[in-house]
Amino acid sequence: MNVVIIDYGAGNIKSIQFALKRLGVDALLSSDVNIIKAADKVIFPGVGEASSAMKKLKESGLDTIIPKLQQPVLGICLGMQLMCNYSEEGKTEGLGIFNTDVKQFNNTVKVPQMGWNTISNLKSSLFDTIIDNDFMYMVHSYYAEPCDEMIATTNYQLDYASALQKDNFYGVQFHPEKSSKAGEQLLKNFLGL
Amino acid sequence: MLTKRIVPCLDIKNGRTVKGVNFVNLRDAGDPIELAKQYAEIGADELVFLDIAATLENRGTTLEMVLKVAEQVNIPFTVGGGISSVKHVDALLQSGADKVSINSSAVNNPDLINELSQKFGNQCIVVAIDAKQINGNWKVHLAGGTIPTDLDLFDWAKEVEQRGAGEILFTSMDNDGTKAGFATEALTKLSEVVNIPIIASGGAGSINHFEDAFTKGKADAALAASVFHFGEIPIPKLKQELKKQGIPVRL
Predict the structure, then answer these.
(1) Can you point out the beta strands (E) in chain B?
(2) Residues 25-64 of A with CB under 8 A from B
(3) Does the predicted model carry a pTM greater than 0.90?
């Protein structure tokens, strides 16, 4: 299977590559539009700050390519947030794939949220054989607001969208590549879509 | 609900674990990768690798180890010890470390915290603080606790948060090695003065100590070494007991 991880200089993408390798898949890191378009599956990672990540996407023209992709696409963490309409972080316009906004946690909770939290109200084949209230590893200061495209929720300060899906586009706030067996199962499910 | 984290800490020297471990079913107790895999398997939430002989010469060896851990272990891990430059942090993150922990270098050059957090995001910058009480005041110590400073623990904690630290790893030198419990009062006060996660370290000797760190001390995570390495507190049992006490843990 031809899996491409979009490499736009944002964050620790090696962990995702290694996690896929543990599942027997050699994923390619690439920023080349043609290679990304030709992939069977595309992973859109991201760690760091939203406006600078968006700037990098624009510089490489990936901001117009990603929303047009036809194959299954999985946004992880900041990748998922950039697929939304708008993020409060750096007042950033997103790719507009998911019809929701990204907001900052307030100071009634510790920010960033760091650690293992549960995912509930699972609604997609992305979660096949993953049980409601299973644990995923989260590290983030901003969250996606609940919306129609929500396929999982997590509670921290409030119930927020910890996973989203629209057509062939999937997004998860947590890090499946660091989420032990449940995370491995999710990646396996994505590869099987 | 966000759960409390249990974090084994492995001391590394030249790419091997030291201080010895006494773990069942390990072919090579000195192999950090095998130990890390075992810990991930039994339910550790996160791992810390502390390079206790960090020098320029062995930096390559550490990077190789980090790469192998990232390849084989499916939970997050932090690398600390002798980290003092943006370039070094970049190399560690590129090799697959999820977070880096800085300690003396942050005190000697506080701007480093800002630089690292701006470049890599605050989620991967842990500031480790070693402190002990001198005349009733918690004072920050450097270089593995050997050099005292005038810095007050709580002032310094506030400053590192403002400069962009994503997490604080607080080791009480008064408690470290005593197995008499974590410094819960100092932990409580830390949680009051900052709004980033706190990892408690130093003093773990029994399951009750972890419970106190989380309830009284309000810590977000608790770190220990020998009680885990020597099987004195098995992690599955620890987490089951914590759950019974109503503390949220990942089982």
Answers:
(1) 5-13, 16-17, 47-51, 77-80, 99-102, 125-134, 137-142, 147-152, 167-172, 198-201, 221-224
(2) 47-49
(3) yes
